[in-house]
Amino acid sequence: MPATLSRDERPQLFGGIPSPARRLNGPRFASNGPRTPPPHHRHIWIITGPAGCGKSTVGGFVAENLNLPFVEGDEFHPPSNIHKMGQGIALTDADRWDWLVLLRQKAVERLTETASTGVVLTCSALKRKYRDVIRIAAYNDHDVIVHFVYLRADEDVLMQRVKARKGHFMKDAMVKSQFRSLEEPERDEKDSSSLDVSGSMTQVQREALRLVQEALAKDSP
Fold first, then answer.
1. Which of 33, 41, 90, 117 is in Cβ range 3.0-4.6 Å of 177 for a Cys bridge?
2. pLDDT at 107
3. How far, in whole angstroms, is CA 24 from its chain's centroid?
């Protein structure tokens, strides 16, 4: 069941134990230089964007190459949300609220349970107020830094990708509804980075990994 929240936990926005990090078949990229010292903080990396942008592929790649826990956001949707999306019905803010809070909780749990320096989470996070839900993790614990990596592509590109997927509850019609809701990160969202994913997925994976490694290096002693 979705997490039950007190009134104090519900700002003016809506939104089992997660599966272990997936082992992917893609290449791992080891650094040829000296090992980067552990960062000062613990980091939550949220890979965001509409359906078809490659959140799971990119997030899983980053998690495996950095040996970080991986939380697949779609796995925590309640059955009611999955049914709606499978029927091509867009989720409302109310549908997403408890799901977003649950994802934040699971990300923090994985940091605590694994004593890891970071965790990778996939979540569409289409609107700024959805991203604000995840940001509360950093407000609650100043040892945690939240980062958003927004995977950006044109609607037509993502439509083609979703049409080609087999066995996923998200249908291509949902791409249109997600683009209607989409609020790309703004300049004042300093914790957000954007990657163009219209090119090859291998290139996007490497660029995402580089981005995360650079941020971790800046946070190291």
1. 90
2. 97
3. 17
Check residue 32 and give its pLDDT: 44
Selection from 180, 174, 214 nearest residue 86 by Cα: 174
Per-residue confidence at 44, pLDDT binned at 50, 70, 90? Answer: very high
DSSP 127: S
Q: In the numeric block, which tokens belong to residue 104?
A: 């934040």
In this structure, which amino acid lies at residue 79? Answer: P
Number of other CB atoms surrounding residue 47 within 10 Å: 31
3-state secondary structure 12-81: CCCCCCCCCCCCCCCCCCCCCCCCCCCCCCEEEEEEECCCCCCHHHHHHHHHHHCCCCEEEHHHHCCHHH
What the block records as the tokens of 50 is 């509409």
Structure tokens at 94: 């109310």
Provide the pLDDT for residue 165.
Answer: 65
Measured CA to CA, the distance from residue 70 to residue 45 in angstroms comes to 10
Return the structure tokens found at 179.
Answer: 């683009």
- Residue 130 in tokens: 């959805």
| Residue 70 confidence (pLDDT) | 97
Q: Is 140 exposed, middle or buried (0-12, 13-18, 19+ CB in 10 A)?
A: exposed
Give the three-class secondary structure for 193.
Answer: strand
The helix/strand/coil state of 148 is strand
